[in-house]
Amino acid sequence: MISASDLTPAELAALLHFHADAGIDWLLEDEPVDRFAEFEAMRAARRGARAAQPRTEAPAAAARPQTERRQAAKPAASPAAAPPRATPAIPDEQAVEQARFAAESARSLSELKTALEAFNGCNLKNSARSTIFASGTPEGRIMVIGPMPSADDDREGAPFAGRAGQLLDRMLAAIGLKRDEILLTNVIPWRPPGNRAPSPPEIEICRPFIERQIALAEPKAVLLLGNITARHFFGSTETIHGLRGEWREISVLGRTIPAIASLHPQELLTAPVNKRLAWSDLLIFKNYISAEILG
Question: Is the pTM of this model over 0.90?
Fold first, then answer.
């Protein structure tokens, strides 16, 4: 095992950053703690507490006739609970048509947000806390799109929240961008239960809304983050490792837009070794927007 005294200050700093990205807040207790002994002591204390409890029986209950005791033992009828309210299921084809009509009716991003919040044709909305719409500004003509809201996004009501969002902020800052200067959004506006991948019907129901967002924002360059996002726009079944780092054109409502895919910040938190790949993609993105947008 390598001792900390054998590492240079730069190596120690890199190691601490690695642990921080992995979610480790502390490394050692101030004093050694025997967790096994703590657990056994806790179990023994619980057994002792149960053994010390006196067993009492109500004498009146034993004196009552057997028939009366049986009747008393019957649980009292509880009032019927009201069934949970749920949005009636809509056939997928009909839901897609309703989503398309609602999206096409919007003439601005604010109108589209209102239409999305009123739309009830996707079952994902029933389990999500928030409807996550685009944040930032379309004036920068740069759009960053992720796959779906995380638990942090759902809780805070904004895209790219929590640790993944903080990492994205640092990634953008490294190429001279800020989140309030661009537009951030997701393909799916509602967090799927348990962070599962959205189903193909769910993606198709949400497709008109994300396409309308892009059409109204009119970006000149799009950064696609994550597997689901890249596959959605590139129409491919390859993984993000096969789709990243190369400019492609995506067609949205008759408009062609240059787009490049990279790894999602959450994937980088899970596997920090992939940060070098993301950095390479960001440099390609920076060079393009510097020449074509920022001028």
Answer: no
